[in-house]
Amino acid sequence: MIKVILCDDHALIRRGIRDTLSDASDIEVVGEAADYGELRALMRHTTCDVLVLDINLPGRSGLDVLHALKDEGSPVRVLIVSMYPEDQYAIRALRAGAYGYVNKGGDPQQIVQAVRTVAQGRKNVTPEIAHMLIESLTTPAAEQAHEKLSDRELQTLVMIASGKRLSDIAEELMLSPKTVSVYRARVLEKLGLSNNSELTVYAIRNGLVGQ
Fold first, then answer.
1. Whose C-alpha in 12, 81, 110, 148 is 20 to 30 A from the C-alpha of 90?
2. CATH of 143-205, one of 3.40.50.2300, 2.40.50.100, 1.10.10.10, 1.20.1050.10
3. Are 160 and 180 in contact (CB under 8 A)?
4. Using one digit for the tens of pLDDT, what is the confidence trace for 27-66?
């Protein structure tokens, strides 16, 4: 039996994933968490084979959690299930230690198969991600400017370009507005941009948000 813990801040999404996984006779959901704090408390007394993790968590992001687990040498295999398209975060997640990346908007059965693949210690890579990995290996000199952003800076970029105000971002990420402003300033500087309008245009042109 594959034991799974779910970590997503949206209860309805957790329920949907739990119901999907529970239909599989070889998978058991043994715990749920809404953020990093709840996850850490849960993992102290609940063991699992696979952690199904969202990227956009309040406070510490899913990428932060990946880095923390990697630093601790945790044996838990992580499957990222995110609303963001593969080209935004998949490569970063895999580099941070994830075993796979699945988009929430895809076929629910993809999550079931991905959990099984990850539980076996194998990477779950979609054709789109495989293509991006090949591109990153064969054209390393073509690195785009936003790929040099930190995980939190990229997250801030995507949220601003999606039309969210700094105050909304601060609340969602459980950060101070001042901290979010610092991230915004770093993004503008690293990308050589001047304002949110230019930032949004950059994000659209590079496929980081939809038009």
1. 12
2. 1.10.10.10
3. no
4. 999 999 999 899 999 999 999 999 999 988 877 788 888 9
